């Protein structure tokens, strides 16, 4: 006659349940910690707040930003960057340059400090580059950018700034793809590298726009 299998005692059942709860709490805590570290140091989601990057990025579109790109690499012309613009530009109208400049010239010197706001624009000029804007197109070191991604500029004043500027050392000139409707470096100048948060490399929302930038 086989021995009857012992049934779990209430104390053992309680111990097992407690162990499972503790294990679940630890797993959730680790997952949250990993998610926090990823967002803080590696990849951060960002929602497009305006139409300044149309037609490339639409209002409400969500992108992923590579934060390591700003820390360990040099940005390249054509990159779409998320960054902090110069301080105080929100309160000073459209032209928020750090110094007075001719009406036919982009701003070449930014205001001191950084805003807590975040913008997203395309990098069009590197440190030391000479830039002009003609009909919304960037003329970089005498050569027009390859810019089939931009929206037509429609002859607005900010579309024609033919007097050349030289980008400051350690600074980067950024513009929206919607050249006739973008608050960008033309008005408040190039930004310092330490103002760059990272490079937008992929879209994750809406579903029909999922993909790499």
Structure description:
With 213 residues, the protein is of the alpha+beta class. The protein has two domains: 11-45; 48-212, Umud Fragment, subunit A. It is built from three helices and twelve strands. Strands 1, 2, 3, 4, 9, 10, 11 and 12 form an eight-stranded antiparallel sheet that branches. Strands 7-6-5-8 form a four-stranded antiparallel sheet, with no helix packed on it. A hairpin with a 5-residue loop joins strand 11 (196-205) and strand 12. The radius of gyration is 25 Å and the shape is elongated. The model is unreliable at 28-41 (pLDDT under 50).
CATH superfamily of the largest domain: Umud Fragment, subunit A
**Total domains, how many?**
2
Sheet with most strands? 8 strands, antiparallel
Alpha-beta classification: alpha+beta
Q: Tell me the number of strands.
A: 12
DSSP summary: helix tally: 3
Provide the CATH topology of the largest domain. Answer: Umud Fragment, subunit A
The CATH class name of the largest domain reads Mainly Beta
Helix content: 10-25%
Element order, helices and strands?
HEEHEEEEEEEHEEE
Described by the principal axes of the CA atoms, the overall outline is: elongated
Q: Hey, roughly how much beta strand do the residues contain?
A: 25-35%
Distance between the termini: 72 Å
The CATH architecture of the largest domain is Ribbon
How big is the Rg? 25 Å
What is the mean pLDDT? Answer: 84
State the low-pLDDT regions, or none: 28-41
């Amino acid at each position: 006659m086989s021995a009857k299998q012992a049934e779990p005692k209430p104390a053992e059942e309680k111990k097992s349940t407690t162990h499972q709860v503790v294990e679940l709490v630890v797993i959730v805590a680790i997952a949250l910690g990993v998610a926090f570290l990823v967002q803080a140091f590696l990849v951060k989601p960002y929602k497009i707040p305006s139409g300044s990057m149309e037609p490339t990025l639409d209002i409400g579109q969500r992108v992923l930003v590579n934060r390591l790109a700003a820390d360990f690499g040099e940005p390249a012309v054509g990159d779409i960057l998320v960054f902090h613009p110069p301080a105080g530009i929100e309160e000073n109208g459209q032209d928020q340059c750090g110094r007075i400049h001719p009406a036919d010239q982009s701003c070449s010197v930014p205001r001191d400090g950084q805003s807590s706001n975040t913008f997203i624009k395309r990098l069009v000029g590197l440190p030391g580059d000479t830039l002009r804007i003609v009909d919304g197109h960037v003329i970089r070191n005498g050569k027009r950018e390859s810019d089939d991604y931009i929206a037509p500029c429609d002859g607005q004043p900010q579309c024609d700034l033919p007097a050349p500027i030289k980008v400051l050392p350690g600074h980067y000139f950024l513009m929206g793809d919607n050249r006739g409707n973008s608050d960008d470096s033309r008005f408040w100048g190039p930004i310092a590298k330490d103002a760059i948060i990272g490079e937008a490399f992929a879209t994750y929302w809406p579903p029909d726009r999922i993909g790499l930038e």
